[in-house]
């Protein structure tokens, strides 16, 4: 455990220390997120935080490769380096997109290429822990693996809409998955606790924690696509590694409820972004619009409209993620009936925090208040604007200028990267 915690700390420290350098690069290359009518942030903000996060991942895995405790991870195959290589590919893709605004087809092609690279190096989904189901075709295994990784990358990208939201959600979900993979490793191999998925999750949680001090509201820098896609790829790869290593005979035993957790836990970790995505598609198609048409009716927008401050909205989404993620992990130690009772209690508490007296309808408690979603009246203070060069914020003109929202489906979240 101490070695994994050391890897986590190294990833966090490197990310934290290099984030100011990423800010400098963003300022020099023009990777600045402009303020649009539907956005939550109120001044142009640098992105490319993913550069520091990816560097933290690379340094942490490199350090781990020199630790005798983790020899078993690197001696068997090169899957750890495959995950790092895939992360580097999507990081470069995200940097290009953050600077030059790539079209969605180019971006999707790059995501598929990165997923293919990871899968080709052995990180493939070959089994499902449901009745011992095995993917018999290598081609089907490759397709399913690529699909899972691409969906995860875009799900994390989609939820990256408030300061600190994506990094915090993945840190919480990754911590839960770390607990699960470590406990599974201890049970399966009492003499060797080295495990690839546990190592990857430790590094993943570390880079999220290292980035949060710079990204929590009010954010000084966004992770950008170069960060959100890296988080999605690394998370999906760790899930695939665990799921693919399960003994299908054990998985088919209904008394082994813990073997279902590789399916339940990833869903719990990305439940909020998946729910947000599904609701957005249904909402937009139902009104005759494109599924990728941007709006201000995402879950975090609704929390703001309920009267929660920016920070409180983020923390509430943290709470919901923790409820479901650690609820799934609890199945490792307690019977499903007891976990269900505890989960119901936790959901009630989370619902009270969401809808209870802490909120103040009609106003936002942060200095940089935002307008309510469409159809919900509010009277926020005037939006501040500033030049990308860091000039002091000034009051806008009486008639603010608005821009047409982009049609790129990958810009559907409030922290999109139109410049």
Automatic annotation (TrEMBL):
Keywords: Cell membrane, Membrane, Transferase, Transmembrane, Transmembrane helix. The keyword Transcription does not apply. It is found in: Cell membrane. Its main location: membrane. The keyword Protein biosynthesis does not apply. GO terms for molecular function: transferase activity. This is Undecaprenyl/decaprenyl-phosphate alpha-N-acetylglucosaminyl 1-phosphate transferase.
């Amino acid at each position: 455990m101490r070695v994994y915690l050391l890897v986590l700390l190294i990833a966090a420290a490197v990310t934290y220390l290099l984030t100011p350098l990423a800010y400098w690069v963003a300022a020099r290359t023009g990777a600045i997120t402009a303020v649009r009518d539907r956005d939550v942030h109120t001044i142009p903000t640098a992105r490319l935080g993913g550069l520091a996060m990816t560097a933290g991942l690379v340094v942490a895995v490199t350090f781990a490769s020199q630790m005798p405790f983790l020899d078993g991870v690197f001696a068997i195959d090169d899957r750890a380096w495959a995950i790092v290589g895939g992360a580097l590919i999507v990081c470069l893709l995200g940097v290009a997109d953050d600077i030059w605004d790539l079209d969605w087809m180019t971006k999707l092609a790059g995501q598929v290429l990165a997923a293919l690279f990871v899968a080709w190096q052995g990180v493939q989904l070959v089994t499902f822990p449901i009745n011992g189901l095995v993917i018999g075709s290598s081609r089907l295994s490759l397709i399913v693996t690529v699909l899972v990784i691409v969906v995860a990358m875009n799900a994390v990208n989609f939820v990256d809409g408030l300061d600190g939201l994506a990094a915090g959600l993945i840190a919480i979900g990754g911590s839960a998955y770390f607990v699960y993979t470590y406990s599974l490793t201890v049970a399966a191999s009492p003499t060797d606790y080295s495990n690839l998925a546990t190592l990857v999750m430790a590094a993943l949680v570390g880079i999220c924690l290292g980035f949060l001090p710079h990204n929590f509201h009010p954010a000084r820098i966004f992770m950008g696509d170069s960060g959100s896609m890296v988080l999605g790829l690394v998370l999906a790869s760790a899930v695939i590694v665990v799921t693919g290593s399960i003994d299908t005979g054990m998985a088919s035993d209904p008394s082994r409820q813990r073997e279902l957790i590789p399916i339940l836990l990833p869903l719990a970790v990305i439940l909020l972004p998946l729910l947000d995505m599904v609701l957005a598609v249904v909402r937009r198609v139902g009104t005759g619009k494109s599924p990728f048409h941007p709006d201000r009716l995402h879950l975090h927008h609704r929390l703001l409209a309920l009267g929660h401050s920016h920070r409180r909205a983020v923390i509430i989404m943290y709470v919901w993620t923790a409820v479901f993620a650690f609820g799934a992990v609890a199945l490792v130690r307690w019977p499903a009936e007891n976990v269900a009772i505890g989960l119901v209690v936790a959901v009630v508490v989370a619902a009270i925090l969401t809808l209870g007296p802490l909120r103040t309808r009609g106003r936002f408690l942060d200095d940089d208040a935002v307008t309510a979603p469409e159809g919900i009246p509010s009277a926020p203070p005037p939006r501040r604007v500033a030049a990308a060069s860091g000039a002091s914020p000034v009051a806008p003109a009486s008639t603010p200028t608005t821009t047409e929202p982009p049609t790129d489906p990958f810009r559907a979240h409030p922290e999109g990267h139109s410049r």
